[in-house]
Amino acid sequence: MAKLWAGRTDGSVDRAAEDFNASIRFDSRLYREDIRGSMAHTAMLGETGILSSAESDELIAGLEALLADLESGALTIDPECEDIHTFVEQTLTERIGDLGKKLHTARSRNDQVAQDLRLYLRSEIDLLTEKTTALIAAVTDKAEQYQSAILPGYTHLQRAQPIVFGHHLLAYAWMLLRDRSRLADCRKRLNLSPIGSCALAGTTYPIDRVFEAKQLGFDGICQNSLDGVSDRDFCLELAADLSILMTHLSRFAEEVILWSSWEFRFVTLSDSFTTGSSIMPQKKNSDMAELVRGKTGRVYGDLMSLLTMMKGIPLAYNKDMQEDKESIFDACDTVKACLDIFAGMIRGMTANEDAMLNAAKTGFLNATDLADYLTKKGMPFRSAYKISGQLVARCVAEGRTLETLTLEEYKPYSELFDEDLYDAIDLRVCVEKRCSEGGTSVSSVKKQIAEIRNEL
Ligand code: ARG
C-alpha cells in the first residue's frame, strides 16, 4: 500500500515493520469521527478562503458519500491501510481525484487523531452515562421492593447491626451516582478541540479553530498546540473513572456471589443470569457477577497501561501514543458490557427475606441497642457497653439470645433494666430507631429513593 508520507523515504517498509506500525486493526472504529472531523475541517478551509468554496463543497460531498457507503456496507475499510486517517484520505482521493489531496491542508494526523479520539470518547461517555443511569434505576427499584427487609449489616464480615436490604442496595446506588458525575466531569475537560495544533506548533494558514470546533460540538479549543497533540489525560481520566466504577461493581458482585451461596442464601439470581456445571447437576453459579469481578482487573490493567505508556515521553507526539486506543477502547467496551449485565442481573434478583431475617436473629446484632438502652437511662456509654458485652458472653456460653434472658437474669447486671428493654432490642425497633439522616430506617430509605430518582 502506497504511503501517505512517501517522499523523504521511498515508503518501502519491511513487511513486519509495516504490520507493527499499522493501527487500522483497532482504529477503524474511529471512521465516523474521522470523516465528520474532516468535513468540519473542510468547511473551515472553505469558510476562511484557504480553499475555494467550490473545492470545499466538493470535498464535503465526497466525504459524505464515503461515510454513507461505509455505513451501508457498500464500502469496506481496507485492512492494508496504515490507519483510518490514511484510509479516508486515500479512498477520497481515489474517488474524487486530485482535489482529495487538499484535504490535509493545515492539519496533521497528530491533531487529527487527538480530535478523533476525543470525539469518539465523548460518545462513549454518553453511552456509559446512560448505562450507569439504567443500573442505578434497577438498583433503586430493587431497594424499593426490599425497603423493609431486615438482614444483618456487617463489619469485618462479622454480624454487626440490623439494617434493611433497601439501605444496603442504595449504598451502591449512591456510589454509582458519583461514578456518573465523575464521567460528566471528565466529559467537560475532554470536550475541547485540539485541531489546528497541527503537527505540534500550529500553522501558517489563517485557520479558524473556533469555527471548526463549534461544528463538532466542542465547548472550546485547546490553547496550546503542544499540549493539544501531546496529552492523553482525557484517556487517563476516563480510565481512572472507569476503574473506580469497576471497583464499585466488583464489590457489589462479590456480595451478590456471597449472598447467593448456600452459606448465606440471602438472594436468588434468575436462571437467565446464572450457569450450571458440566459435571455437578445441582450447581447454579453466579458467573455473571464473577466475570464482572474478574473484568475489574482488566480495566485496572488498561489504566496502568495508559499511565505507563504516557509517563516518559517527551513533547510532542510520539508513536507510543498510538497504544492509547486499544487500552481505552477495551476499558469502555468492558465497562459497558458489565453495566448492562449487572442491570439485568439485579432486575432478576429476588431476596429470600426469611433467610435474611433469620440470619439477623443470631449474632447479637442488637447488643449496641442494649447498651444504648442503659445509656439513655443515664449510664455512661462505656459502662453500658461493658454490661452489654458481659450479657453477650453469657448468652454465647449458654447458647441463648439477648431476647430470651429473663428480667430477673438482667437485673443483677443493672437496676436500670426493666420490661421495656425487650422492646428496645427488637430488631425492627433497632432498625426504625436509626432514623438519623442517612440511617437505615425505612423512612430514611424512602427519602433516599426519592432523592436518587430526582437525580436520575
Ligand atoms: N495512527 C496514529 C496514532 O494512532 C496516527 C497519528 C500518526 N502520526 C504520526 N506522526 N505518525 O497515533
The CATH homologous superfamily of the largest domain is termed: Fumarase/aspartase (Central domain)
Mean pLDDT score, rounded? 96
What small molecules does this complex bind?
arginine
Query: What oligomeric assembly is this protein in?
Result: single chain
Number of self-contained structural domains: 3
CA-based gyration radius: 31 Å
Strand order of the largest sheet: 1-2
Number of helices: 19
CATH topology of the largest domain, by name, is: Fumarase C, Chain A, domain 2
Biggest sheet: strands, sense, closure? 2 strands, antiparallel
- Number of E strands: 6
What is the CATH top level name of the largest domain?
Mainly Alpha
CATH architecture tag of the largest domain: Up-down Bundle
Write the layout of secondary structure elements.
Layout: H1 15-21, H2 24-27, H3 31-47, H4 53-72, H5 84-96, H6 109-145, E1 150-155, E2 158-164, H7 165-190, E3 192-193, H8 209-215, E4 220-221, H9 225-230, H10 233-259, E5 267-268, H11 287-310, H12 324-347, E6 350-351, H13 353-361, H14 367-376, H15 381-398, H16 407-410, H17 421-424, H18 427-432, H19 442-455
This protein binds arginine.
Arginine binds next to helix 6.
